[in-house]
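Board notes, transcribed. Complex of a protein with fe (ii) ion.
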Amino acid sequence: MGAQKPSPAHRAGLAGLLTSPAVVGLATAGLGALAYATLIERNLFTLREATLPVLEPGTPSLKILHISDAHMMPNQRLKARWIAELDRLDPDLVVNTGDNLSHPRAVPTVVQAYDRLLSRPGFFVFGSNDYFGPKPKNPFQYFDKDHKRSGGAPLPWRDMRSAFVERGWVDLTHVRHEVEINGVRIAAAGVDDPHIKRDRYETIGGPPNPLAHLRLGVVHSPEPRVLDRFADDGYDLVLAGHTHGGQLCLPFYGALVTNCELDRSRVKGPSQWGAHMKLHVSAGIGTSPWAPARFCCRPEATLLTLVPVKNPEMGSDHGVSHSEASVG
Ligand SMILES: [Fe+2]
């Protein structure tokens, strides 16, 4: 039996619907939002600032520049220039929570962008996108927490690591490290990326030095199973990235997904994890080249000012403040 041809009246009705003001208006708004997200907001680099009361009483304050998820391509000069300008903030410590690369030839651009920051004390860990190149993905798979994860071609993360370490940054991957910066004694530790199950917390497990003024955990993806381990061991603060703040967010609703097991309310910025520990998640500076768009979620770096807790009896008090500022 052959398919029935639409009648002239049916065709005219369909044409009328497609050219109706409502449909044309919706299509125009959709295309406008897509153009804004890919051409404009993706490049609206923003500095966020937050004050976190996490240090032992009587300790001087400490400025940490938290950068994450640069996803650098070799030709991204605007982003590289903005990152280079962050040095003007004069941070005491730089913490880089991974996903720096998005291309096999991006290491020189990354090292150039971080050049002046590499002269400062720094800690880093890797994210999955430092190990494996980007691949086109169905964006709807992010709504499925159980989707199969697969990486692209291997990336030169060892070259990047060598460049960072040569300049003095400390690779915290499964390492405990103690240092004193401007009178603040820091006991830091990190794990490899739990998003691709490379974390081996037991290698750094156990309480950090109780004499430290700050016990700092560092990880790429803020998976609750790892955050719980840091909290149980008595860490004061964990810094993480990976979520991109949701990347495509809805006005008055926020992120649709976190791309990990973390709840949506903590997708970016500071939050409390358990009774004592604070968490700071960076929304990151870049995007995958296969999803070059941000909406209601600007690319960012964060200047964290760590200050002493107000009431030592209560552990770190819950008060945090944050704002947006410009750099350069
Ligand atoms: Fe990322």
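The first strand starts at residue 46 and ends at 55. Residues 74 and 106 are 5 Å apart (CA to CA).
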